[in-house]
């Protein structure tokens, strides 16, 4: 830690990787060099009001429309609730659980103002997944939307939970009784502010530690490509618990004084209707959603001027179809929870459809072989990245896998062409990227194996033109003769009820023989891919 920490609870700081396991951090452009003392909430929200943006629209959704001043007021009141009623001190973790609503944004800022560390969770996570996140991060309190109380209650976490939207003792009522001002904790720029959870290839969650300055860096490095203005209206589908959504729907618009229209309900038609009704100008979503929007009728997308695609590789056919229909050149981006947001991309006339782009300002990227040596252009290898943000896992031995020789290894196989553009080839691990979601094959296998009819299960990604990949499961039953379409649907429903529903296998193939394995008993997924 370069500056004296403000954290009283040093749980996260104490679990940072050893210094010799950190990636090289480079600060090659002035936009990423910040003072030693910095609170991201003060910079993104309070400074916006101080600049005279208080009356500007800031965030809307779920029947709420707040200006920057409104959001500041509610964030301050919630921060007072956290300190006065919950007793949190700087460094305590706070678990947030909600769909995309203004209340979630206010809670996120409240935690930062109080010097806490946000533990954001995806709305679709099940109780077993929430327990894993709790056990890894040990939060002090949970703030939750009452509409999502079922899984949180089922998780039976040993911490108090406060709910907005509750019929009694609601978080809103508590907040309304608190002062509208709050003295922000004087955090260091490199004090932890966020734990971003990612599944990893085993289904065991990894927590990426991000600092207050990181939350500003992602906006300032991507702005030269995004070119957002204060008059823009942002929208998109990714949850705020997913760092792609956090950046694109909160940090980026607020960095320039723009507004965001949040979408709390799922569905491409819901997003398309929001764009049409609110005349949104900038959209963040996955390639699957852009393709699906083209199949809808009756929605006016003409207000869009900038569209960012991430979460999975953008097929050239999707890029071309969207451009032909709207005239908008999709900005493809490669990011990672470990690096917080996008680090390879291109925009406007620099876009070459079929490639991801080049390293964004402030980052360096290269393709290396298995020994860490750079390979010649046109050669497939491992993508390695470094910049002002890098992977820092919370107390996790997998740090040494993701970071090698000072570089972040993203787990993607790429080649670089002679002009420096990076071209995606495949994932190098067992992560399946489907419709923008990272899905760990072993986690789906484990869920299938909890069904009494299943003897063995193997899961792979099946290439798909619309979703990038489908989750495909090969299942060997205890009674192979019981295989049927009805049982396949039963297994799909079982997985949906066990882990997040988006992870369920969309294809199930029953096999009569045991699955192929190595001599040591490990599943040979590569053998399944040929079937």
Tags for this model:
531 residues, alpha/beta, Rossmann fold, GMP Synthetase, Chain A, domain 3, nine-stranded mixed sheet, six-stranded mixed sheet, 31% helix, globular
Note down, in words, how this protein is organized:
It contains 16 helices and 25 strands. The protein is α/β, with parallel strands linked by helices and 531 residues long. Among the domains are: 228-328, Rossmann fold (3-Layer(aba) Sandwich); 431-528, GMP Synthetase, Chain A, domain 3. It is 31% helix and 24% strand. The strands form five sheets. The protein has a nine-stranded mixed beta sheet with strand order 2-1-10-9-11-12-13-14-15, sandwiched between helices. It has a six-stranded mixed beta sheet with strand order 6-5-3-4-7-8, sandwiched between helices. The radius of gyration is 23 Å and the shape is globular. Helix 5 (127-137) crosses helix 6 and helix 8 (212-226) packs across helix 9 (243-256).
Number of strands: 25
Q: List segments where confidence is low: pLDDT < 50 over at least 5 consecutive residues.
A: none
User: In CATH's first tier, which class of the domain at 228-328 applies?
Assistant: Alpha Beta
State the assembly state of the protein chains.
single chain
